[in-house]
Specification:
- The protein has 435 residues and is of the alpha/beta class.
- The protein has 2 domains: 291 residues, FAD/NAD(P)-binding domain (3-Layer(bba) Sandwich); 111 residues.
- 27% of the residues lie in helices and 20% in strands.
- It has 10 helices and 17 strands.
- The strands form 5 sheets. Strands 1, 2, 5, 6, 7, 8 and 17 form a 7-stranded mixed beta sheet that branches.
- Helix 1 links the parallel strand 1 and strand 2.
- Helix 1 runs parallel beside helix 9.
- It is globular, with a radius of gyration of 21 Å.
- The chain starts with 8 loop residues before the first strand and ends in a 6-residue tail after the last helix.
- The mean pLDDT is 96.
- The structure holds flavin-adenine dinucleotide.
- Flavin-adenine dinucleotide binds next to helix 1, strand 6 and helix 9.
């Protein structure tokens, strides 16, 4: 079917960031702070992406000091004491109140002169001479054409790059991706008796001496817990008597297909009830727990990885490789592959990673000259992605992309023509440690 229509509403900007999650927020603010006119386009009615609407908590991962992540976590924890922060094998768990974060993050964008277009979705892009000339955006008044000098794809799914025809990879070799999850929060937990559990390899025991992880596996095997839900992770939050629960799971879902998203939404909402019932019946301290809140959108861990000039590889992450053209330094998180074809972890348990660098080329999609990626859709392998997908690292890639976009506009060259050294210098001037 051929559809043609004159788009009468037009917006001009210097930098258009698509996606208002952790990566997009940092990309937009970093470009705006360099004097750019920045428009951030977000399909939902609040910003934050998984950090808010995905009810994902805690913020995991690390990078070198001085990134915007440091500033953001100060804002997110301003009203709270540090005593509840927990150090685990996964590093320091940075708690967030996803409700509070919605207000803090939109204010952060507003205070930094970013124009945010909420409830607006990128529907298509027009590419001419290897450049995106126009983004076609759906608004409540119909379609709008957004003209920008630079586009930053922070959609998580690499949707803009995909629409522009960029090469991408999905999943591991058999194309399966990590399972999807709906996170939820419970309260009314008796703190004096209740356990916490950060992952399947946590040595948490129940009062009868049984390992909690073994008990969860048994319950999954005998049908008390849903299929593949072999661990019910119970994270602390800022508040006493509350747990963020990362447990529901559905495998073999393509997070880009609306029919799969619907199927998962039905299944996982049902799983929330089953898991709360399990906690009330079997886990001391949880007898009276109540559902407080849940994700407003399906939690999709993995979709497109847009192929860039550099592909972050397994060895980079495992051995902690460092590069002269790094724009993110000392990124660190475990190789956390939730099993694409079953319960638990794909490799038995999450494998250790060493602090590694993200080279500038990982943010430069091949084939399009005024587009950059940020966040979980940057260029890397399935296993490397399992590490850099966490929010602290996504924020740092966003900051680097926003900085490079602004710099390339100022220097009147494409992001690809811009040297990594110039980006590094600008990031260092902002206080980011790159050595
Ligand atoms: C269930 C689950 C648990 C996780 N647990 C943790 C954890 O404990 N700690 C941690 O640090 N990380 C965790 N992660 C990973 C982390 O949340 C994500 O990888 C991270 O949020 C990615 O950031 P992002 O900015 O790239 O994308 P997102 O957070 O997904 O944000 C992308 C934004 O783009 C918007 N968007 C998408 N398409 C369009 C479009 N066409 N037009 C306009 N806007 C669009 C979306 O609405 C969204 O706001 C988890 C992920 C999942 C799914």
């Amino acid at each position: 079917m051929l559809y043609s229509k004159l788009i009468e509403t037009i917006k001009h900007t210097q930098v258009a960031v698509i996606g208002g999650g952790p990566a997009g927020i940092c990309a937009a603010v970093s470009a705006a702070r360099m004097g750019m006119k920045v428009v951030l386009i977000e399909r939902y009615g609040a910003v934050g992406g998984n950090l808010t609407l995905g009810n994902v908590s805690p913020i995991l991962g690390k990078t070198s000091e001085g990134t915007m992540y440091d500033e953001i976590i100060c804002k997110l924890s301003e009203k709270h004491t540090d005593e509840e922060k927990v150090e685990t094998r996964n590093g320091k768990e940075i708690h967030i109140d996803s409700e509070e974060a919605k207000g803090i993050l939109i204010k952060f964008l507003h205070d930094n002169n970013v124009e945010v277009m909420l409830q607006c979705t990128i529907a298509d892009v027009i590419v001419k001479d290897n450049k995106i000339t126009t983004a076609v955006v759906t608004t409540h008044s119909g379609l709008m054409a957004v003209y920008a000098d630079r586009f930053i794809d922070a959609t998580g799914d690499g949707t803009v790059a995909y629409m522009a025809g960029c090469e991408y990879k999905i999943g591991r070799e058999d194309k399966l991706t990590q399972p999807v999850t709906l996170e939820f929060t419970i309260n009314n937990v008796d703190e004096s008796r209740a356990i916490m559990c950060y992952g399947g390899s946590d040595p948490v025991t129940l009062p009868d001496g049984k390992k909690y992880s073994v008990f969860c596996k048994e319950c999954e095997a005998n049908g008390i817990l849903p299929k593949n839900v072999s661990i019910v992770r119970l994270h602390k939050t800022f508040y006493k008597g509350e747990r963020n629960v990362n447990a529901t799971q559905m495998n073999c879902i393509n997070g880009l297909l609306s029919e799969d998203i619907y199927k998962a939404e039905v299944e996982l909402r049902n799983q929330i009830e089953i898991i709360i019932d399990f906690l009330r019946r079997y886990i001391p301290g949880y007898e009276n727990c109540m559902l407080k809140t849940s994700a407003s959108t399906l939690g999709v861990r993995e979709t497109r990885r847009i192929v860039g000039d550099y592909v972050i590889n397994d060895e980079d992450v495992e051995k902690g490789k460092h590069y002269d053209d790094a724009v993110v330094h000392n990124a660190w998180f475990l190789i956390d592959i939730h099993n694409p074809s079953g319960g638990g972890q794909a490799e038995g348990h999450s494998k250790m990673a060493q602090p590694y660098d993200i080279p500038y080329g990982a943010l430069l999609p091949k084939g399009v000259e005024n587009l950059m990626t940020a966040g979980r859709c940057i260029s890397g392998t399935h296993r490397a992605h399992a590490s850099y997908r966490v929010m602290a690292i996504c924020m740092a890639t966003g900051e680097a992309a926003g900085t490079a976009a602004a710099l390339s506009i100022k220097e009147e060259i494409t992001p690809r023509e811009l040297s990594a050294e110039a980006v590094r210098k600008a990031l260092s001037q902002k206080g980011v440690k790159l050595n």
